Structure formats: structure tokens, C-alpha cells
Amino acid sequence: PLKSGPTQLARRLVAVDDRVYVTLGVDEPVSVLDATTGKKLHNLAGSKGAEEVIVSGDHVFTLVSDEQWELNTFLPFHNTGDQARVRKDFAWNEKPRHVKAYDAATGKKFWERKTVVSPQTLTADVRNVFFHDGEKVVAVHRSSGEVEWQSKKVNRPAEVRFNFAPKLVVNDGVVLYAGGDRTMQAFEAGSGKVMWEGPHARGGYQSPEDLLVMKGMVWSAPTTSGRDSGVFTGRDLKTGEVK
User: Fold this and answer.
1) Cα gap 159→151, rounded to integer Å
2) What sequence ranges are listed for the domain Pyrrolo-quinoline quinone repeat (predicted)?
3) Sign of the C-alpha dihedral computed for residues 201, 117, 169 and 1 taken in this order
4) For the chain, is the Cβ count within 10 Å smaller at the N or the C terminus?
């Protein structure tokens, strides 16, 4: 149906230096390609069913589902319909996935962790890997996969539809979370301590909302409706103060 997503498809392709990390089919494993020639160098073992791929330094992190992709039966069994069907039929199933860590150069797997992970929330910095587990923001150590900290419960929609996803961003020692309830929170990346909370504007239409970080500032703007102002508000990344 119109505007049904799935928004996660954009998280299956990463290009870094002379390597491309990509799923070459909906249910295919993550392949590592030579960026110049397109030649496949290797697959990441155990990555079949990958829904997301991120590359951080010398690590590749994947989010892998054990189950067949929900939309595999879409074309044979469903007509196009309208947006009302998205609310009813196209939602994240909230089942556990596997977060897996690999060596970016060799493809060797370092660790994996089975957990619920909200769509599009997998991210990393030099120390930790972060995600939203359906209730909390979680940090696990990038070298071991062991939990470093967990936040208290944070807000999110009762159902996360395929055309939406919470926002989780890490930048300069700060983890930002916005779950779609018009608020955002900032946590210390190392400890999980809440640094500040503030308004988060509704910035998308049947799509993930904007949460932009640039030069030490966090930006959002109301852009969903033609009646919205479209004016961006910038907040200090460390304090939440409007600048």
C-alpha cells in the first residue's frame, strides 16, 4: 500500500573506503564487495536474514532475523490498498533478533547477542553499540557484546509500523533518542546518565522523523503538515539549551 515502507531497506547498504557491504537479495546474507570492481570478496557468516548493517571503525554490526521476511508474500497475496491497511497489516513484530559483530577486514565474527531491537535504532561509537530494545535504550560493549548500561523505559508508539521507526543517534559522547511522542532524551554514552530532555518536533509524514546533529547542535522542525511552520530549532548537544 501507499507509504507502507519498509524503511529498513535503506539500512542494507554501506560503502566505506574500498568496500561495499550489502545484502544482494531480500533474504540473502551480507556480502562484502570490492568497491572498484564489484567483485564479491566474501559473505559474513551467519548474516542471512540481515535487516540492517552498520560499519563503525574496524567492526561491522548486523541485525539478523531468524524468520522469513514478512513481505515475502506481499505480491502474490495482497493488492495495493490504501494507507489504512498500513496501520493494520504492516507493523514490526517485536520478536528477538541477533546483533552480530564482525571484523570489517576479514569477516570473522566476534560475538552475537539475541535481543529485541527496534527498527533503525542500531548504532555505535568507539566504545559501545546502542539500540532500543522495545522499552529501553541499551548499550553493549562493542568488543564483547556485554551490557554496559540500560536506560529506564522510554516512550514509543504502541505499534511501530513499517513506515516509521524510533530515532537513536550517537554523537560526541551523547546518545539521543526520540520515540515519536514529541519528546527527545539525551544520555551520556559512557554511563547512560540522563543529560537533558526536550521537545522533538513532528518531522515526517508516514515516515521516520528527523533528528539531525551537526556541529554540536541537535535540530528538528515541524514539517508533517502544510500548516506546520517548518522552522528548525537547534539545541546544544550537551545541555539541550536552544541556541
Assistant:
1) 20
2) 98-242
3) negative
4) C
Q: What is the pLDDT of residues 79-114, one digit of tens each?
A: 666 677 777 778 889 999 999 999 999 999 999 999
* CA-based nearest residue to 122, from 49, 55, 189, 181: 55
Model confidence, pTM: 0.93
Count other Cβ atoms within 10 Å, centred on residue 17. 8
CB-CB contact of 209 with 180 (8 Å): yes
The total of other beta-carbon atoms located within 10 Å of residue 123's CB is: 21
Task: Convert the pLDDT of each residue in 191-226 to its tens digit.
Answer: 999 999 999 998 888 888 999 999 999 999 999 888
* CATH number at 1-162: 2.40.128.630
Q: Range(s) for CATH 2.40.128.630 in the chain? A: 1-162
Tell how strand 217-220 and strand 194-199 pair up: unpaired
The more confident residue out of 121 and 26 is 121
CATH architecture of 166-243: Beta Barrel (2.40)
Residues of the chain with CATH 2.40.10.480: 166-243
In the numeric block, the cell 560499519 is attached to 55
